[in-house]
Design goal:
about 120 residues; alpha+beta; six-stranded mixed β-sheet; 3 helices; about 25% helix; globular
């Protein structure tokens, strides 16, 4: 991948990661179903595993107050990218390291995996 292409992907995935922190997206089953792939699963900072096939609550996945920083991408193939970043949870006053795997399919990016690891 050339530098220009990588930069475009970086900006798009940063935008999508930030969208997933907004109340509008997190409380919309429709929007979450667009951004999260059918095979999506997460290992949360609590250590719990959640799979989209288990279903999205009618209220979505809950509202959070988090600040994203130190965002970077790591292309794994032409259509699969690992994102890494830091999150500050304003309510818990806690930082965590985050990673997501995104795939580009059917003319859009979808998240297939996410993990949060608390920083002590």
């Amino acid at each position: 991948m050339d530098t220009k292409h990588v930069d475009l992907i970086r900006r798009e995935l940063l935008k999508l990661e930030k969208l997933l922190l907004t109340a509008e997206i997190r409380t919309s089953v429709k929007e979450l179903s667009i951004l999260l792939a059918e095979e999506f699963f997460e290992i949360g900072s609590s250590g719990n595993v959640w799979r989209i096939k288990d279903g999205i609550d009618s209220n979505g996945i809950g509202i959070v107050k988090m600040i994203l920083s130190d965002f970077d991408i790591h292309p794994l193939s032409e259509n699969i990218v690992l994102t890494t970043f830091k999150i500050f949870n304003e309510e818990k006053k806690q930082y965590s390291l985050r990673s997501s795997i995104w795939k580009y399919e059917n003319f859009r990016w979808q998240m297939v995996f996410h993990q949060g690891t608390p920083i002590t």
